[in-house]
Amino acid sequence: MSRAALLLTGLLAVALVFPWLAGGYALSVGTLILYFAYTSQSWNVMMGFAGQLSLGHALYVGIGAYAAGALFYHFGIGPWAGLPLAVALAALAGVVIACLAFRFGVSGVYFALLTIAFAEFTRIGFDHVSWTGGPGGMFLKVEQRDSIDLVHLRGPPALYYYVMLALTAGALALCSRLLGSRAGYYWRAIRENEEAAQALGINVFRWKVLAMAISAGMTAISGVFFAFYNNSLFPEQVFNTGRSIEIVLGSVIGGVGTLFGPIFGAAVFTLLSEGATEALRAVGWEIPGSKGVVYGVVLLLVIVFLPQGIWPPLARRLGIR
Amino acid sequence: MARSQGIDRRSFTTALAAGVATSLLPLRSARAQPAKLKVGVILPRSGTLGLTGQSCQKGADLAPGVIKELLGVDLELMNADFESNVDTARTRAERLIQDGAHVLVGPFDSGAAAAIAQVAEQRGVPLIINIAAAPQITEQGYRFVFRNFQTATEIVKNGLDLVGELFQATHTAPTTAVYMHVNDTFGQAMTKGITAILPQRTQLGFKILDDIGYDPAAKDLTVEVSRAKATKADFLLLVSRLNDAVLLRREMVKQRWNPMGIVSPGSPGMYEEQYFKSLGKLSEYSISNVPWYNPQAKLTKLVEKAFLKQNPNDKLVFHGLNVGFTFEAILVAADAFKRARSTDPKALAEAIRQTNITDKMTLGGPIKFNAKGQVEGIGSACVQNLNQLPTVVLPSAAATAKPVFPTPGYKKT
Amino acid sequence: MSFDLVANVAISGILTGLVYGLMALGLSVIFGVVRVVNFAHGQMMSVAMYAAALLFARFELDPFLAVAPVAVAFFVLGYALQAGLINRFITRPEHSQFLLLVAVGLILVNGLLMAFGPDARSVQVDYQLESFEFGDILIDKARAYAAGLAIVTALLLGGFFRFTWTGVAIRACADNYFAARVVGLHVRRLYALTFGLGAVCVAVAGCALTLLVDVTPSLGPHYTLLAFVIVIVGGLGSMIGALLGGVLIGVSEAVGGLLISPSAKSMLSFGLLIVVLLLRPQGLFGRRS
Predict the structure, then answer these.
(1) Inter-chain residue contact B213 with C262, CB threshold 8 Å
(2) What per-residue confidence (pLDDT) applies to B383?
(3) Is B308 within the bounds of a domain?
(4) Which residue among A76, B52, B91, C240 has the highest number of C-beta atoms inside a 10 angstrom radius?
């Protein structure tokens, strides 16, 4: 067994027993970490593997959330049936954006800003769609919550935790497969040098669009989860640029392009945020805004001093790869 | 900030690490102190809602003192800031419950209320909503969620009724209005209410010439005001937030648009301190028909005294609605605690359901929750800005001045 | 729809657009030379707005006079930020730069909240609510002055880049980083200088805007997005593009607000941005690199 496999097994074991050890608060933080780990892993397919910077991934979270949410709200169709639709719609949106952008040669910063523009455009658009409640929000019916109802994704907090854990593990497995596949090699070739990849006969356009489709589709699943975890959706909340930034944070802090980076990064920045709140409370310094400042400063230091993210140097120290 | 000087970097780092560590330990606090009720107050004290969140906090801060005097009950407040972010609202709520909060109070925001409501429901800890108007929150089927605030529909009903009373009291009969509203969660809920209710209120006798929704983040309302002015409507019916209300009022002056008046059928903005500070004498005569407190009530005097003690440079009237409803939410918790003689959340929830508080600060009937956990019959007041202060002008039982409408200087165009 | 309604709205759109254009000009200049997108741009401007509001509250200093001290301070701060922090990042990948500036923005927003609380700050000067009157056309005085200031600032900056040795050197850096180093230019210092100049644009725009908008701590991100839209439409790195982009966005939002629901008018801007990026990624006035 390699060290990586050992570490993975250990992490998974800890993650599996965590709900039994943790209180409600830790469980909610754990769920949040897994949520960010999953979305960041999905984003990483786009940026880390294929080298395309998207800063508007909240768009796919929102599409997924609203697709599954609206099906449930209007027709009583549960999340599992809504899931394929959510994934398909988000992937389609991803493909359309990618096709437009890459066909017209939009890349780099321009591509990043284009993704923000699409997300914002959609946010304001949803503010004017009364079928989904507009800015007034869409509230999903909440039923008895004591029993576990997997079909409608209703149950105690631990249920959501395990669903998110399964998704995160699934995303990790998928990404690991992708990296080892032909697509993975092509993507990395494109990431390192697009022109050289083109010269080698790789259909750069097609592989980039594929990366976007997979990334968007994966992200949409977290949107479905978001809808049924929160049971209320507001365009201002789900499509917010701040959401897109949160998705990016995990990977950048953890290590862009690595498999474990997004997971570690998500854990680090969520714990950092909670830790800053607790620490400030412990020292009795609870001026509104102080937490944001502390959080921002630590974030800044991490970026300045760990340009590769946390995971690569950590992996070296642990002797993994 | 003087206190900060004692914190050096090392001790801060230690605290940070300790914070992370302790926050994740499974501390299920023992609920073994029935002498004291622990109230988790969760408000947005930073982020986009920071201003109102901090205003509500003032109502929470004065509650333990006043309630001790009133009911002889000991309260311990546990404050949490959810940074105007729903995810944080959720984890903060979990944290409060884990730290032993027997009841949650907050959060001045419908989105956060919906998120916290789930935590409260799952953990079986009562949540008493101070302010949040989305009607759906008490329609989602929760058993531990209570709200002592009007839903958007009720706000509109009361607000429009007061518009009628205003016309009667001032012997005016405007025939046209232009409706402007902020297009956010609250504005949307209000607009829905108005579209549904206004056609039934034929006795009001005015019709809406144009419905102009604007972006909550708008920093420039020139177009919106130009469009409204072009309708030549008799008065402006406005559902706003704070910053846009200020922007809009200024723009009206710049464009020299002087309708009979600005009347809000129930929104924040024009009665708030910032509106007076930013606009000076331009703030005069604006009218807000909002859930309000009774300035004549006995409890109000008590709260006002405590408020001035804690905020010597402030006036209660500028925080009245926020302080009033936040205080009352905590009062509901304390009253239930006193009757239940227990901090057990289930017993508390049961006791809250039996609440019947008649001696209250806000207007309207007694605080009584219906089967859905909603208080009905909360009253509104017609609050007009007179002499640089929000002043109750209607209903006459609570009024301290007479309404002025149309605005002096109004000339029919 | 009457003519004077459209004219009033369009003129106001042009004037506001010029002020936004000045703000975006800062972003454009920085990107054009340093090749870093300043994701903390709007947040920096809200700091300038606070500075102007405080100078007014303390010394009754008119925001148009506050421009001088605030601009000087911002030049120094911008210089220091580039020299001390961002220069380390010019060879880093874009997502790394992005997060750095996001962190800076976060610190600014929350720092303002800590320092000044959540209340809005404003200035009150006597011409603020007055308008020039031409028949049925009313032109808001503060807005007109602010637009004038924006044009003057842009002209001065343009002159600097065209006629001074340092300005020309900066442009040389922008055109070819390596060649500039080869001929012995101190590139990093020029970068810092550029960021300082970008910050000056932000400072001037911020002072002018305090006459039109009250400042709150959370105002920044909104303007960051707005600045992006403007510079992309006008052309990242193009000075004239930023100003005209501002005007274009200002007018399209204004006139759009008449035709469709005003709450949807920002959709027009983002829609315009998408169309421009797809059809002319270098922007309407940008050069293809």
Answers:
(1) yes
(2) 95
(3) yes
(4) B91
